[in-house]
Design a protein that fits this description.
about 200 residues, mainly alpha, 2 strands, about 65% helix, about 5% strand, globular
Length: about 200
């Protein structure tokens, strides 16, 4: 009987250990989840502030001279986010937060843009970023490298006159724009207030 009692007590002790471990695990998971929620909320607030700085500095003529400094400061924060979380998608930081990540990279130097292009491409494939943003970044990189753009999103000043940067296979540009979720190039031209004149090949 003594042996039976010891076995029963031992069994009860093991059950208590398992229950205690489960309870600790649940408490730990709740703490981690709560910390993640707080962390995400903080990131979204920071991204909102970054977006405001990016846009405000471009809104007023007397602020333009500070664009380089502001863009550099914003990029430091964005690269820190990407280094820690990868390319933050819509399900993580929301649509506006995700847009802000792209916006800062779009306004960065060529080397930085090329560095993060593959991450944006993957994010688009996963449905976590907008294909429109990928189109704009792709075209910006191509234009900076002196190559024809694909989607017709980039303009340049030709002796003070704004016009579209040269476009690859221009006759089919609207098909590519449609696949990227963009309106026609004629609509875009009207939106930015310029006349669209297809380039003629010699």
């Amino acid at each position: 009987e003594l042996m039976v009692d010891i076995k029963q007590r031992s069994g009860s002790f093991e059950v208590m250990k398992v229950l205690l471990l489960l309870l600790c695990s649940v408490i730990s998971m709740k703490a981690i989840a709560q910390e993640l929620i707080l962390d995400t909320s903080s990131i979204i607030r920071q991204l909102s502030a970054i977006r405001e700085r990016d846009q405000n500095i471009r809104r007023y003529d007397d602020s333009v001279k500070f664009i380089t400094q502001v863009d550099s400061a914003n990029l430091v924060q964005i690269e820190a986010f990407i280094s820690k979380y990868g390319w933050p998608g819509k399900s993580f930081v929301g649509i506006e937060g995700n847009y802000t990540i792209w916006l800062v990279i779009q306004h960065s130097d060529l080397a930085t843009q090329e560095k993060y292009l593959p991450l944006l491409e993957q994010s688009v494939k996963e449905g976590e970023s907008r294909p429109q943003d990928l189109a704009y970044l792709t075209d910006r990189i191509l234009m900076r490298k002196g190559k024809p753009q694909i989607y017709g999103t980039q303009l340049w000043s030709n002796q003070g006159v704004w016009e579209f940067w040269k476009i690859e296979d221009e006759k089919n540009v609207n098909e590519r724009r449609k696949r990227a979720g963009l309106g026609s190039i004629e609509e875009y031209a009207n939106l930015v207030g310029i006349e669209y004149k297809p380039h003629t090949e010699n």
